Amino acid sequence: MKVSFKIKQQIAQTLGNYDFCCIGCRRDIFDGLYLCKDCLKLLSYNNGKTCDNCGTAIYGISNYCSKCGKRECYFKRAYSPLIFEGEVQRLMHSFKFGGRSSYALPFAKLLADYFACLNLDIDLVTSVPMHEIDKKERGYNQSYLLASSFCDILGLKYVQTLEKIKQTQPQEKLNYVERMRNLNNAFQLIDKNIIKDKNILLIDDVLTTGATANECSRIFSKANATTYVLTLASRKETIKTE
Q1: What's the angle, vertex CA 240, arms to CA 238 and CA 241, rounded to 5?
Q2: Residues 99-136, buried b or exposed e (16+ Cβ, 10 A)?
């Protein structure tokens, strides 16, 4: 399911017709951007050297981040247009924890524009699920909103493939080993036949250690599915040398 040039043109037209206030400074804007020019300059773009597996921005001679160099990676490749720092981090915290569910559309437009340049052949799009208790407390699943808006823009097929059956601790407070233990038996497939032998695009908001994406991809691999991961932002890492 590659994105055609026609769809790329439609993305540009959609972006050009999107008028509202800047999500960064709330300034009125009328030029079709979701951020004003001043706020756009504050974003950290992930356009330098990245990990060959998880797409983390890396600084050093290694081709892999410290996590991917030590683990079995179940997703084929992960991509992120932004680095999770500064203004990007502030906006995404507002989206995830601050009740700004409306940010899903402008963030999805950014993801769609980025995805159109990747030339990935996928069969369906899915997202990382939340436990029902957590979703009720927050009011929405930001990953689902991001993925469904992304699919609406590109005309791609969205399928909810996983459910979260165990309430876990917030991943932000844990190290990588703790995150993996935290996720043990947390997810299950809704229907194995839906994803069997398929190319899946898994969407989440942020990739930090990649533990969540890897666990979801591990479950997909049981159905011989190939997983690509797309997040709005990922961390950066300086690789230490001896």
Answers
A1: 140
A2: ebeebbbbbbbbbbbbbbeeebebbbbbbbbbbeeeee
Distance CA 160, CA 179 (A): 23
Distances (CA, A) of 111 to 46, 73, 79, 181, 211: 13, 23, 10, 30, 21
Nearest-5° angle of CA 126, CA 154, CA 112? 80
**DSSP for residue 62:** -
Instruction: Render pLDDT for 124-135 as a digit per residue (tens, 0 to 9).
Output: 999 999 999 999
Tell me which H or E stretch contains 136.
helix 132-138
79-110 confidence digits (pLDDT tens): 999 999 999 999 999 999 999 998 999 999 99
| 11 sits in which H/E element | helix 5-16
SS3 state at 152: helix
Here the tokens at position 137 are 């407390």
Quote the CA–CA distance of 65 and 93 in Å, as a whole number. 24
